[in-house]
Amino acid sequence: ILNVEQSPQSLHVQEGDSTNFTCSFPSSNFYALHWYRWETAKSPEALFVMTLNGDEKKKGRISATLNTKEGYSYLYIKGSQPEDSATYLCALIKAAGNKLTFGGGTRVLVKP
Amino acid sequence: DTAVSQTPKYLVTQMGNDKSIKCEQNLGHDTMYWYKQDSKKFLKIMFSYNNKELIINETVPNRFSPKSPDKAHLNLHINSLELGDSAVYFCASSPLTSGYNEQFFGPGTRLTVL
Fold this sequence. Notes:
The structure holds two protein chains of two kinds. Chain A is mostly beta strands. In chain A, 0% of the residues lie in helices and 55% in strands. Chain A has no helices and eleven strands. Chain A has strands spanning 5-7, 10-14, 19-24, 30-38, 45-50, 56-59, 62-67, 72-77, 86-94, 101-102, 106-111. In chain A, the strands form two sheets. In chain A, strands 2, 4, 5, 9, 10 and 11 form a six-stranded mixed beta sheet that branches. In chain A, strand 7 (62-67) and strand 8 (72-77) form a beta hairpin. In chain B, 0% of the residues lie in helices and 55% in strands. Chain B is an all-beta fold. Chain B has strands spanning 4-7, 10-13, 19-25, 31-37, 43-50, 53-57, 64-70, 73-78, 87-94, 104-105, 109-113. Chain B has no helices and eleven strands. The chains are: A mainly beta, B mainly beta.
């Protein structure tokens, strides 16, 4: 069983504050890590696909880093806004292929 | 235009019935997937097809059968529905089978088995 763990499970953030959360995964046979943003009543939407150790990707106020040797990725939200409220999912792909194993998500609620 | 669409959005049915959920993508992608959101809200892969060919087949009861008439469609047939099949089912697609490609998800189909 492949364990992809996300912490914390939920997070309350004050508008304007920055925050970050973690995705942990087994480091062996790493191939790729995906991050998705999932708003309530909508579909998951891809944020990043990360493949190389030390990768750092950015989209607006959201960025992510990757450490494949120790098996973790951080997602950062700078200056949180209410529209950032969503569940953020990470998903691991081991070896060459396309089978995503999802973590349980971090639910972020940004309070005005 | 919706990129990945699923029908129906909601499906309520009795135990023992046979039902289908349809998925279509207009993105020109080669690869399509079915996921189940389980009772703990985890998304779990069920099947993946590449250009009408089955490439991922997870440990899923054989009452579940995917069918891909062409690369733009991947339908999910479920026979002899059981209470435990109640869940939200998501279809997704990606340009290629490579894990380097992001996946595009449909809106989900909420199946309730009574």
